[in-house]
């Protein structure tokens, strides 16, 4: 038995499929530009290069498009919602406020789109209450502009939304490479000294530390967490680990005693404070773990202390 389908509900269900937004254009027999907004666009074939769009049979432009020898598909960019709206509603001249030029086949190409396809008409196919325009691509061009989306009857702009969302902090691992009472300090690139640091990527902290040790030319092991703090100035989250190492000459930097005069060239105040605490705790043999920000926080004593 054939089920009677609710057209409105069926349209809503089709709207669950997120699509791009296009403006399909052509010239009538007098050379006047015509266009309509469509999200019923699809690639069909690479060899030969074919695509299709569909136009409603009730469209005032149906006869002109079906008779046209060519048409173009303009994939709109996120900033072109107004162009989409213009070509979706009735207007005497939809091209009045739109900058466009003729493509290789003569069809109008709209400026600023993320891609356009200029097509020869391959076939016109009746399909229910719509007509499918099958085009053979004669020329095309794409750009870096993000595309305008359409979902459940509304426009969506994923790239614009993503750019406005606050990003999480970069995670930076600091290696306190220690031999006795000395730590490895390297040039911080600002005329001062720092412990070796690196941003943590997809491989994680341990893999980053192993690569960092190789670059430094030291034999060291990832040790206990010594500090976890957020630097609001730079938008970074720092994880500092004490990393015991074997004595030797590193390929980068030098081992420096944990004395006030030797720490004077450490330019970052938060790092200098951390190393001063390390010097005190090294003398006592008890190491706490700092949690907080680059300005203030709390040192948690070791278990059992």
UniProtKB/TrEMBL annotation:
Cross-referenced SMART domains: Flavin_Reduct (SM00903)
One term of GO molecular function: oxidoreductase activity
Pfam families, per database record: Flavin_Reduct (PF01613)
Keyword Oxidoreductase attached: yes
Signal peptide: none
Domain Flavin reductase like: 14-157
InterPro entries listed in its UniProt record: Flavin_Rdtase-like_dom (IPR002563), NADH-dep_flavin_reductase (IPR050268), Split_barrel_FMN-bd (IPR012349)
Name of the protein this chain belongs to: Flavin reductase family protein
Gene3D superfamilies: Electron Transport, Fmn-binding Protein, Chain A, Nucleoside Triphosphate Pyrophosphohydrolase
The EC number(s) this enzyme carries: 1.-.-.-
Coiled coil residues, start to end: none
Keywords, comma-separated and alphabetical: Oxidoreductase
